[in-house]
Amino acid sequence: MAVKNIMIVGVGGQGSLLASKLLGRLLVDEGFDVKVSEVHGMSQRGGSVVTYVRFGDKVYSPVIEEGEADFIVSFEKIEAARYVRHLKKGGTVIVNTQQIDPMPVIIGSTVYPDAVLEEMSSKGVQVDALDALSLATQAGSAKACNIVLMGKLAKYFDIPCEKWEKAIEKCVKPNFVEINKKAFKIGYDH
Questions:
Q1: How far is CA 4 from CA 43, 47, 131, in A?
Q2: Any long-range contacts for 100-103 (C-beta under 8 Å, 24+ apart)?
Q3: Which of 31, 43, 99, 170 is paired with 146 by a 20 to 30 Å CA distance?
Q4: C-alpha span between 134 and 132 (Å, rounded)
Q5: What is the 3-state secondary structure (H, E, C) of 86-102?
């Protein structure tokens, strides 16, 4: 199998690292060679966090170059726009429609851009947008946005939901497994 590339992008504290751990666990359990690389940019202060997940028969490097990502899973709209140049032609951006103001917007030196997703779509990018925060809240925890987005990503894979749920059981603390399974199902069904 040719190497597939997934970028998970977000803001510190949104659970992108758990999402990449879950995805990596699932893919290893499926027998793929998997490389995961995390890039933190002031993540504890709301800065950008990027994780590369690459898998296939044999993967030699954990880094995804511009124009190589099959999927970008974005936990926030501006983060999707920031990394869209990494998407390959025909790739998909799965994006949470939640808006988290970056520091320059908070301090008033700039404004949050309008129509971020529409602009990407107008340039031919396949955008699969959902309000993961509302869906996570339906599941029982606003913190489960990451797993809602993994559920949406799962729709693009030929891996049964039961296997994703097994990976959730392995990666999530026991107290939160059921909420996360519910969040996954809601994202998958959306």
A1: 26, 26, 26
A2: 100/11, 100/46, 100/76, 102/11, 102/46, 102/78, 103/46
A3: 31
A4: 6
A5: HEEEEEEEEEECCCCCC
Give the β-pairing of 33-40 and 69-74.
Answer: unpaired
**What tens digit of pLDDT does each residue of 8-48 get?**
998 776 778 899 999 999 999 999 999 999 775 554 556 77
Q: What is the pTM of this model?
A: 0.91
In the chain, the domains with their CATH numbers are: 4-189 (3.40.920.10)
d(CA 27, CA 167): 9
What is the sign, positive or negative, of the torsion defined by CA atoms of 90, 148, 162, 36?
positive
What pLDDT, in 10s, does the model give residues 86-134?
999 999 999 999 887 777 778 888 888 889 999 999 999 999 999 999 9
